[in-house]
C-alpha cells in the first residue's frame, strides 16, 4: 500500500521556520498502529491523517498523532491538513467543515498564488482549574521560576481541542531563558489532566507583536512546540477574560510570536469576538508553506 505524505510549515512564509506538520491524505485504509508508525518515523510535533466524511455535515475528518501518542486535536496540523486537502482540489473550496469528536469546526483559506493563510475557528476555550498552593509551586519549580516572575493573573488550565496551562510572565528575558525540567512538567500534566504549558509575556518591546510565547508539551512527546495554534487561541480568550489588553468590546486581533529560541520563528494570528467583555468566539491561523511531497510504501 502507498500513501501520499506532505510536509508543511505553518505560521510562516519562509521554509524551515514556523511549526512543521505532516499530512497524509486518504488515510482511511490505515490502522491506528500504522498511523502511529508514520508519525514516529517523520517525527514532526504532529502528523494529521485525513479521513473521508461520514455524512453531508462536513468535508473531512482528521486523526492526530505525535511521535508518541494519538491526541484529540492540534491547531497547526489542522491548518496544514486543510491546506493540503484544498490544494489537491485546486483551492476551489475555501471553506472547509472539519468534524472532530467535539463538533464541527469551520476552516477558511485566504490569499492567492503561493501565499495562503489558513484560519480555524476553535471550540470556545473553557477556563478550568486555577493552580495554587503546592500544585502551582510544583509547576514553577519545573520551569525554574518563582512567584515574583509572574504577573498578577491566574495560572490556569484552558481547554478546547486540547488543554494547556497558561502561565503569564513579566518580561521577555524570563521567557527566553526558561530551562524547563521536562520530567517534572510531565508530572504536572498528569496532575492537572493537560497536555502542555503555554508560557507568554506581553513585554513586546515596541514590536508589532502583542505577545511572545513558548509552548512545552513533554507529556505527549513534544518538549517544545515551535508555534502553537490552539495554545495561542486559548491565550486570546485569556487576554480578554482577564482584561490584559484594550479592545472595543466587539473584536480583538493580535499576533503572537514564537519559536525564536529553537530557530523556528513564526507568527500566529488570533481574532477574538467579544460580547459584554466576555470572549464568545476564537479564530486562529497563519501562513502556510508546502515543503515537500512524497510517497510512503507500507
UniProtKB/TrEMBL annotation:
Q: Which NCBIfam families match?
A: PhzF_family (TIGR00654)
The family database entries (Pfam families) matched by this protein are listed as:
PhzC-PhzF
Coiled coil (residue ranges): none
Superkingdom of this protein's organism: Bacteria
InterPro entries of this UniProt entry?
Answer: Phenazine_PhzF-like (IPR003719)
Organism field: Agaribacillus aureus
Identification of the protein by name: PhzF family phenazine biosynthesis isomerase
Q: Which terms in the Gene Ontology molecular function aspect does this entry carry?
A: isomerase activity
Family that this chain belongs to = Belongs to the PhzF family.
Q: Which UniProt keywords apply?
A: Isomerase
The record's annotation in SUPFAM superfamilies points to:
Diaminopimelate epimerase-like (SSF54506)
Amino acid at each position: 500500500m502507498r500513501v501520499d505524505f506532505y510536509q508543511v510549515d505553518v505560521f510562516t512564509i519562509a521554509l524551515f521556520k514556523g511549526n512543521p506538520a505532516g499530512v497524509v491524505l486518504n488515510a482511511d485504509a490505515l490502522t491506528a498502529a500504522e498511523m502511529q508508525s508514520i508519525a514516529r518515523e517523520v517525527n514532526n510535533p504532529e502528523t494529521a491523517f485525513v479521513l473521508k466524511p461520514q455524512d453531508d455535515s462536513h468535508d473531512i475528518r482528521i486523526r492526530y498523532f505525535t511521535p508518541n501518542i494519538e491526541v484529540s486535536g492540534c491547531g497547526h496540523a489542522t491548518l496544514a491538513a486543510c491546506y493540503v486537502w484544498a490544494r489537491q482540489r485546486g483551492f476551489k473550496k475555501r471553506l472547509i467543515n472539519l468534524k472532530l469528536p467535539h463538533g464541527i469546526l469551520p476552516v477558511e483559506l485566504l490569499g492567492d498564488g503561493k501565499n495562503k493563510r489558513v484560519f480555524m475557528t476553535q471550540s470556545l476555550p473553557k477556563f478550568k482549574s486555577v493552580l495554587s498552593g503546592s500544585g502551582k509551586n510544583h509547576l514553577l519549580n519545573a520551569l525554574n521560576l518563582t512567584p515574583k516572575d509572574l504577573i498578577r493573573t491566574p495560572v490556569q488550565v484552558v481547554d478546547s481541542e486540547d488543554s494547556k496551562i497558561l502561565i503569564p510572565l513579566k518580561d521577555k528575558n524570563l521567557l527566553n531563558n526558561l530551562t524547563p525540567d521536562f520530567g517534572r512538567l510531565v508530572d504536572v500534566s498528569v496532575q492537572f489532566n493537560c497536555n502542555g504549558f503555554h508560557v507568554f509575556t506581553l513585554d513586546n518591546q515596541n514590536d508589532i507583536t502583542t505577545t511572545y510565547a513558548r509552548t512545552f508539551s513533554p507529556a505527549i512527546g513534544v518538549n517544545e512546540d515551535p508555534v502553537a495554534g490552539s495554545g495561542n487561541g486559548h491565550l486570546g480568550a485569556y487576554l480578554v477574560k482577564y482584561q490584559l489588553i484594550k479592545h472595543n468590546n466587539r473584536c480583538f486581533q493580535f499576533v503572537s510570536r514564537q519559536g525564536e529560541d529553537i530557530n523556528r520563528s513564526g507568527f500566529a494570528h488570533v481574532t477574538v469576538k467579544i460580547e459584554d467583555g466576555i470572549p464568545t468566539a476564537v479564530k486562529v491561523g497563519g501562513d502556510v508553506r508546502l515543503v515537500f511531497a512524497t510517497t510512503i510504501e507500507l
